[in-house]
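Write out this protein's structure.
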Amino acid sequence: MDYNLMDALEMLEREKGVPRDTILEALANALVSAYKRTPGAAEEARVTIDADTGEICVYGQELDEDGNVTDEWADTPDDFGRIAASTAKQVILKRLRDAKREQVFDLYDGREGDLITGIVQQSDHRYAILDLGDAEAILPGSEKIPYERLERGNRVKAWILEVRSEGKGPQIVVSRSHPEFIRALFELEVPELVDGDIEIKAIAREAGHRTKIAVASNDPNVDPVGACVGARGSRVRQVVNELKGEKVDIVEWDDDLSRFIAEALSPARVQDVRIDEEENTAIVIVPDHQLSLAIGKEGQNARLAARLSGYRIDIRSESQDLGLDVEDDEDVEFETVAEGDGATQEVEVEEASDEADGDEAVESSNDVQETSDEQPHEIPEEEFEDAAPTADASTQDNEEAADPQE
């Protein structure tokens, strides 16, 4: 080893952050192993490297039964310089790889919950690899947004789920389906969230389909829903674009549980909410023509409202509450809504359409038709469209459809 190599080690120390003494120690240990493989080598040996000149000396050793050195002599092979150069190259490359892994781990360790941006390098049904510039992150299939296609070269955002230190280097696991990913996206777009003027109280999400968030204001002069929506929906639109069109409902948090549950069921209009704190349930009464809208497609609206509030929700129409339709009243129990099951009432649900309008929250207007196996009275087939209650029907038509006397 010559002095030029020592200069190179100093340069590595400055540029890569790998201490020169660490490399020299690792090199000395590697040279001991290389020396023992040479013909006529002693069973035990030690190697010294001069930190100024780079001169290498090998000392053979003789040990007693207790492992103490009883004899030592210089035993540097004549061609050891060639062996030392080859070994030094391998040791330096290994130390550089280890140093890179340590730097990456130190950079991302403790950053769980941060939002990062990466470029898709590889993607299949099992996982996707994101290039973060100074590291790589893995997006498992279970953490992807369902039905989302990540094309190679796409720039996407993700939420750091976990940072693990493994033998082959640190592993950064990220998610796009976690509910907290929504919070991170809104914090990126809404400065009032970062400043603390408003806060997100609760999030309920079915990734790839719909999300409801409840926001509250800590400043009486700040409208929490309007701040999240932005001028003409500009802020929430950025979030929806990153989510590839996933619907986002923004509702205002209310300490009054009844009012909050009514708000959580938007865009449906609620007439009354009856809370049973002991049973942790809420009975919600809605107009007849709003029943299917309150339930949502496959029970999604009611299910998300239940998760947002933490209460099981039983949705009933006004007619059912008055006992005018007893059979249907038994079919509309939502005891398992909070656990993610769909509505037990038979409903035929058409596609929902969500639109953001001005400073209002992003809400959906569903075209819903409700049917059941047993009708309280027969409706002529040609009059079915006028008789069936829909989310857009007039009040007069809904009253005629719900009146069992006709």
